[in-house]
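Priority: medium. Attachment 1 of 2:
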């Protein structure tokens, strides 16, 4: 039977609960345990698919096509697990299930209530999502005291009782701020946060205290005394300059030992050599390159989380410090492409909505003309195709119907009906609900032998995750190919263009899928490794 660790947060949000949970997962794996990770999100959206990246950060996509919270990306990267639709439950999804059951009469006429019906549904989902792992880490979004998180808190409290003390433990992440005027760190917010947690019946076993510096023994003793947590389980989670240092930091303070002891397990010591290698490579780069990142949400650091990580991973594997120069696509429209001078490579990421699209098309044009390595992802592929159609084929009005529904040259268009890889037929139209009308999740792509894409991957077939509505319009396939655009990846049934590239160019590759979701710090990702290698070659050439 699986054992459970429930992770809550207190004091303020944005303390990095997802990364702390994922790091705990990583060090438990390093002890030889199998783990699974689940995120419970108290907001009412059914999934984060329709939430603005400005507010909520990136929408992470799983292999099975779930649009989820970005913390699942941390779980996959740190703990090398595969998340799925049963890895993320929101209030909206839980209520949706309960309401559907009520309509089907499954509650046999009972008055349907938060307790027990909502809490039972939450418990059932948690217990049904273990994947038979030794340890299941369950992270609850938000902070203790939020009204909307109460049903989740109550559900995990009940699970704690039902599973028993040997099978469940509670970890609480809090803040221990340093007050410069007083020259002191303050434990009061942590005391209050635990008081709040205990008032709803949850006694934490472990406190992870975010702090600028290591918390002195005296202060830890004070926290332990006031919160009823044993001293060795009051852990300083000190700010680090890179997230991949966190597994080692937590291990050094004995976090994995505390868990292992509490669960009465007898295990070999942690092997953290892969994390040490990652940190060693991050700290000792041999080169440094500048990649221009042309996007729309650039001021929001979480909006492109997986992509930033994928570039960092490629840096680890090429011993290169990858500086991401964020460029607002709007600025290219107003100031021109000269702001792209002196970059070693250009990346146009995925995106929705027309703002900045002309700037992105101009960036693809600049990269093609100046022979600067270019990686286009999803919308970044679509703009590269539009640019090629406009400037090489001379179809000056070429566009995507997403941005100009009346374009006479719809080189990117909505496919209204297409066959899924399982044979089912998907139908969509311009007015369909935003949620659930996209091509989502991992699909197989066949790579064309001899192309740069195929060489970068070193494989004939790959699986990558999708999240988009519009597609390359096959009516333009022949003319674009005749004009020199290389189709380097297609879907299994040959119906959908998945990758394009340009041959008369050092490295110009674009894909309809999102390779960033499968990039791992341990191995990196072949496409990003190849892109960063090309950027480095460009850098060395232009800097002698
Ligand atoms: N907006 C485009 C589409 O829906 C691209 C989406 C993306 O880049 N993820 O097809």
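Attachment 2 of 2:
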């Amino acid at each position: 039977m699986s054992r459970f660790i429930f992770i809550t947060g207190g004091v303020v949000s944005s303390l990095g609960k997802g990364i702390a949970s994922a790091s705990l997962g990583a060090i438990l794996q390093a002890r030889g345990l199998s783990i699974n990770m689940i995120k419970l999100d108290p907001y009412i959206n059914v999934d984060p698919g329709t939430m603005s990246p400005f507010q909520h950060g990136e929408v992470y996509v799983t292999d099975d096509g779930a649009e989820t919270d970005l913390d699942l990306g941390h779980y996959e990267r740190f703990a090398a697990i595969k998340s799925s639709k049963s890895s993320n439950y929101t209030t909206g999804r839980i209520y949706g299930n309960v309401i559907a059951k009520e309509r089907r009469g499954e509650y046999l006429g009972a008055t349907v209530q938060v307790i027990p019906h909502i809490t039972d549904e939450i418990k059932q989902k948690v217990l049904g999502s273990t994947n038979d792992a030794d340890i299941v880490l369950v992270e609850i979004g938000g902070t203790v005291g939020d009204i909307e998180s109460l049903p989740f808190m109550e559900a995990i409290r009940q699970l704690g009782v039902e599973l028993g003390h040997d099978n469940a433990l509670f970890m609480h992440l809090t803040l221990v701020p340093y007050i410069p005027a007083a020259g002191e760190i303050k434990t009061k917010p942590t005391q209050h946060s635990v008081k709040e947690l205990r008032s709803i019946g949850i006694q934490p076993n472990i406190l992870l205290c975010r702090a600028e510096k290591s918390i002195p023994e005296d202060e830890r003793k004070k926290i332990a005394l006031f919160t009823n947590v044993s001293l060795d389980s009051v852990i300083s989670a000190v700010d680090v300059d890179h997230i991949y240092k966190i597994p080692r930091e937590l291990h050094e303070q004995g976090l994995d030992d505390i868990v292992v002891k509490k669960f009465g397990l007898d295990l070999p010591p942690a092997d953290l050599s892969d994390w040490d290698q990652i940190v060693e490579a991050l700290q000792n780069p041999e080169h440094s390159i500048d990649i221009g990142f042309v996007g729309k949400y650039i001021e929001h650091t979480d909006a492109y989380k997986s992509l930033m990580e994928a570039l960092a991973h490629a840096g680890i594997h090429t011993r290169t410090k990858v500086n991401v120069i964020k460029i607002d696509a709007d600025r290219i429209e107003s100031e021109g492409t000269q702001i792209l001078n002196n970059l070693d490579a250009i990346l146009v990421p995925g995106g929705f909505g027309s703002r900045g699209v002309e700037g992105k098309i101009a960036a693809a044009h600049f990269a093609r003309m100046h022979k600067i390595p270019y990686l286009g992802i999803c919308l970044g592929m679509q703009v590269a195709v539009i640019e090629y159609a406009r400037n090489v084929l001379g179809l000056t009005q070429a566009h995507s119907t997403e941005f100009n529904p009346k374009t006479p040259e719809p080189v990117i268009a909505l496919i209204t009906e297409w066959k899924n890889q399982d044979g089912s037929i998907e139908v969509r139209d311009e007015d369909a609900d935003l949620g659930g009308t996209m091509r989502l999740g991992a699909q197989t792509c066949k790579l064309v032998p001899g192309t740069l894409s195929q060489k970068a991957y070193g494989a004939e077939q790959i699986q990558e995750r999708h999240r988009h509505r519009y597609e390359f319009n096959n009516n333009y396939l022949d003319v674009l190919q005749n004009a020199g655009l290389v189709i380097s990846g297609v879907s299994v049934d040959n119906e959908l263009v998945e990758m394009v590239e340009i041959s008369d160019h050092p490295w110009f590759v674009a894909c309809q899928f999102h390779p960033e979701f499968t990039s791992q710090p341990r191995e990196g990702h072949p496409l990003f490794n190849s892109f960063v290698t090309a950027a480095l070659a460009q850098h060395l050439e232009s800097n002698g």
